[in-house]
Specification:
Layout: E1 10-13, E2 16-19, H1 23-34, E3 39-42, E4 56-57, H2 59-67, H3 71-74, E5 80-82, E6 84-89, E7 92-98, E8 109-111, H4 114-125, E9 131-134, E10 138-145, E11 148-156, E12 159-164, E13 167-170, H5 177-181, E14 186-188, E15 193-201, E16 210-214, E17 217-223, E18 227-235, H6 239-244, H7 247-257, E19 275-278, E20 282-284, E21 288-289, E22 292-294, H8 309-330, H9 335-369, H10 378-385, H11 391-399
Parallel strand pairs: 1-12, 2-3, 2-13, 3-9, 6-16, 13-22
Antiparallel strand pairs: 4-8, 5-8, 6-7, 10-11, 11-12, 14-20, 15-18, 15-19, 16-17, 17-18, 21-22
Bound molecules: flavin-adenine dinucleotide (FAD).
Residues 19-25, 42-45, 53-56, 138-139, 171-173, 177, 195, 277, 279, 296-298, 302, 304, 307-311, 313 line the site of flavin-adenine dinucleotide.
């Protein structure tokens, strides 16, 4: 009988164990392996398929991909481009952000299914011998010795597995097991909204990407080629009331808010076609402990407002690799190195979450409470009339606060 089938965990030694193969984990795994650090990425699902997750690749991420020499190949995968963000309030259409002032190769938001992006990173990682991605590996606990995290315990398709590492990085998202098990304190910032996601087919004559605001309703409409991905923003806890009012009433509401879809709302055949995602905004007070660090949503869960969560996760990964590749490779990693990662990334996190909270309070909540026809606020009208101003939201959403550049090197084949 093998050790695994007898229930005794196999042990896999590595330098860095990354928990979670989302945007933060896959990018960190890729960058560390590229720099010649041995890394094991553990992902609990069998594949990257997720419906209704963040699918927006912003100019900051396009820039990172360009710096890595991967952008051209990435953009060969199916995607659509949004060079501007538009919002329709009542019957007025306004341009809020315009990315076209950025260098042409990244002057847009690329709408690409998240699984395509993650598959791409998984493929790109294979060229480095130190990149080990294990799917269907569900991390259930940390291994601690003398007050220090020295690895994780996972349940895999081949039985229990202990991965022992100099550093464990929790990239396991907003319901992070790693941060729970590490007993890191979470500051709950709160989000007054939830989102109902659905898809309805798209015709070539339909309008494209943007926000649609009417009294009591706020939709984000994402053009996904032959279908629309629709995000219907609701007041927190309202999903049950909406369901009780019945599917015909819900379809009617969608048809009224988005008249160009009126003839297709019957595609919502049951509540199974409408997925509730509970929104939360929180962040860790301290992102690390000896032997352990959290980044991405595991360190700071993001609201979908602005669609910036993936990009912040990627920026965290780039900064982590920049700061830690060397001490990891040389075996000199200390808690001070981990503190440097938090110091670098906490400011952009706070600013971005602060903007999301303000957008929720000042824009989304008043819209959801309104019953009278809405007029666009003066600030939005000004942005629409003075195109140069559209660069400000474009920069905030597309590039973000303190954008990161790749400084971790690509190790030569001989030194990997
Ligand atoms: C409704 C909604 C819509 C959003 N829309 C957008 C958008 O349009 N654009 C945008 O940029 N952001 C969006 N976001 C935010 C974005 O999805 C996240 O901020 C981003 O995915 C965070 O990346 P991450 O890698 O930190 O975590 P995640 O993407 O959550 O990845 C975590 C990974 O860890 C794995 N995992 C979890 N637990 C374990 C475990 N115990 N063992 C092993 N693996 C584990 C998960 O399977 C997952 O693959 C949205 C968020 C929500 C809730």
């Amino acid at each position: 009988m093998s050790e695994a089938s007898a229930g005794k965990p196999r042990t896999l030694p590595t330098t860095c164990c990354v928990v979670g193969g989302g945007p933060a984990g896959m990018m960190l795994g890729y960058l560390l392996a590229r720099a010649g650090v041995d890394v094991v990425v553990l992902e609990k699902h069998a594949d990257f398929l997720r419906d209704f997750r963040g699918d927006t690749i912003h100019p900051s991420t396009l820039q990172v991909m360009e710096e890595l020499g991967l952008l051209q190949d990435l953009l060969k995968r199916p995607h659509s481009k949004a060079p501007r963000l538009q919002v329709q309030i009542g019957d007025q259409s306004l341009t809020l952000a315009d990315f076209t002032f950025l260098p042409p190769q990244r002057a847009f938001i690329a709408l690409m299914p998240q699984w395509d992006f993650l598959d791409f990173l998984a493929d790109a990682g294979k060229r480095y011998p130190g990149f080990h991605l294990i799917m269907k590996a569900n991390v259930s606990d940390l291994i601690e010795e003398g007050g220090r995290v020295v690895g994780v315990r996972a349940i895999t398709a081949d039985g229990p597995l202990d991965v022992r590492a100099r550093l464990v990085v929790g990239c396991d998202g907003r319901h992070s097991t790693v941060r729970d098990k590490a007993r890191l304190e979470v500051e709950d910032i709160g989000a007054p909204i939830d989102v109902l996601w659905m898809r309805i087919s798209r015709l070539p004559s339909d309008p494209g990407f943007g926000g649609r605001i009417a009294p009591g309703s706020f939709f984000a409409v994402l053009d996904r080629g032959d279908y629309f991905q629709l995000a219907y923003v609701i007041a927190k806890g309202d999903a049950e009331r909406i369901k009780q009012a019945g599917l015909p009433a819900f379809r009617q509401m969608v048809a009224t808010a988005l008249p160009f879809l009126a003839s297709r709302v019957d595609e919502l055949k049951s509540w199974d076609d409408v997925k509730l995602l509970t929104v939360r905004i929180d962040r860790l007070r301290t992102w690390y402990r000896p032997g352990l660090l959290c980044i991405g949503d595991a360190a700071h869960a993001m609201s979908p407002v602005g669609g910036v969560g993936i990009n912040l996760a990627i920026q965290d990964a780039v900064a982590t690799a920049n700061l830690l590749w060397k001490p990891l490779k040389q075996g000199t990693l200390t808690e001070a190195d981990l503190a440097r990662v938090q110091k670098r990334r906490e400011f952009p996190t706070r600013v971005t979450q602060g903007l999301q909270v303000q957008a929720q309070k000042r824009v989304i909540q008043p819209v959801l409470r309104s019953t009278q026809p809405l007029a666009p606020p003066w600030a939005l009208r000004l942005f629409d009339r003075v195109p140069v101003l559209q660069r400000i939201p474009a920069r905030l959403v597309g590039v973000g606060v303190r954008p990161e550049h790749v400084h971790s090197p690509e190790a030569s084949a001989a030194s990997r």
